[in-house]
Write a structure and sequence with these properties.
alpha/beta, 2 domains, 13 strands, Nucleotidyltransferase, domain 5, five-stranded mixed sheet, globular
Length: 346
């Protein structure tokens, strides 16, 4: 009997060791930074951030990922043989959801990159018996907000990021929408203003061309120049350098009641509201979660945005839909990567 009890105790210890030795990696690839988190069932163990490699061969980014993952295991004193999954959240577009293809802010004329392999180099380094997944960053963020953030428990939710660009992800009836080429939910490229400003995608009047951080700043500079405004809080905040105005100066000036800045923010709310109404009509979603750098100025956006959507939407569809702020903030990218591969019972 004593031997039997000893065996049971040893089995429990082995079970606990097995649980704690299963590791998952979340990766966020951006044009400026690569971020990695290493986690087990209990907690996030290590976070590592490094500037994105943009020179060398097209394998420079995947080589960087391999080095950072190994560094994270070393820092956590973890056993890399316990690695069970690597989820990668990145801006696209993608080729066969295994490589980045002509990805803006990473591929440029200097490095001459077109195809950046991600999954295959990781598989070569860490083995076949690991789960790998590459996904659009905004779609992965929708999954992260659904699992850990502002939309926990919601089977119908939308995530929209309003930052340098505008992107999104849809979860409908509990399923992350992919589309025929993995490009579903490009909400930033719905046309809001026909024949409006040209977007980076080649279309005109996209939501991204109207409400992204860069677009808010561009509209402010254009308005100041067209009206020949010599005195403006926006200019004062940028040392009277018109070209130095960013969205931050526009929001800061609006808080100081600068009339032109207030007008631009009101327009931004309107355009964003139209985009959200379109998304609600298309998805019949319960929750719209908003994140990204522009939403750091939610004090000027959220209340009037909710009011605009309520007043201008098709009530039979929008009734009961909530607009919420992201709860994951700047960590959404790496948590999004982790969400792609973590076990369903976590």
């Amino acid at each position: 009997m004593g031997a039997d009890n000893s065996f049971k105790a040893d089995s429990r210890v082995k079970a606990q060791m097995h649980i704690s030795s299963d590791y998952y990696v979340g990766v966020d690839i951006g044009g400026t930074w690569v971020r990695i988190i290493l986690a087990n069932r209990e907690k996030v163990l290590v976070e590592v951030t490094q500037q994105t490699k943009r020179r060398g061969t097209e394998r420079a980014v995947s080589d960087q990922l391999k080095q950072l993952i190994r560094f994270a295991f070393s820092k956590a004193n973890g056993d890399i043989f316990g690695l069970r999954g690597i989820g990668v959240s990145s801006c696209g577009p993608f080729r066969e959801m295994a490589s980045l293809e002509d990805t803006p802010n990473i591929c440029d004329e200097i490095n001459g990159w077109h195809i950046i392999p991600i999954i295959e180099p990781l598989r070569e380094a860490f083995g076949e018996n690991i789960r790998y997944r590459l996904e659009n960053d905004a779609k992965a963020a929708a999954l992260a907000e659904n699992l850990f953030g502002a939309a926990v428990g919601e089977s119908n939710c939308v995530y929209m990021t309003i930052s340098t660009g505008v992107g999104g992800g849809f979860i409908v009836d509990g399923i992350l929408c992919e589309g025929k080429n993995g490009n579903a939910a490009h909400v930033g490229h719905q046309i809001i203003v026909p024949d409006g400003p040209k977007c980076g995608c080649g279309q005109r009047g996209c939501l991204e061309a109207m409400v992204s951080g860069k677009s808010i700043a561009r509209r402010a500079r254009e308005r100041l120049e067209r009206l020949d405004v010599r005195k403006s809080t926006m200019l004062a905040l940028s040392n009277n350098d018109l070209n130095a105005i960013t969205s931050k100066e526009v929001f800061d000036a609006a808080r100081l009641k600068d009339p032109l800045a207030v007008e631009i923010i009101e327009e931004t709310v309107k355009y964003l509201g139209i985009g959200i109404i379109n998304v609600i009509n298309a998805t019949d979603t319960k929750v719209v979660v908003l994140g990204g750098g522009v939403m750091k100025s939610s004090d000027l956006i959220l209340v009037p945005l909710r009011r605009y959507v309520e007043e201008h939407s098709f009530t039979a569809i929008s009734r009961g839909t909530e607009i919420r702020l992201s709860k994951l903030g700047d960590s959404v990218g790496t948590i999004a990567g982790l969400s792609l591969v973590m076990p369903g019972d976590w």
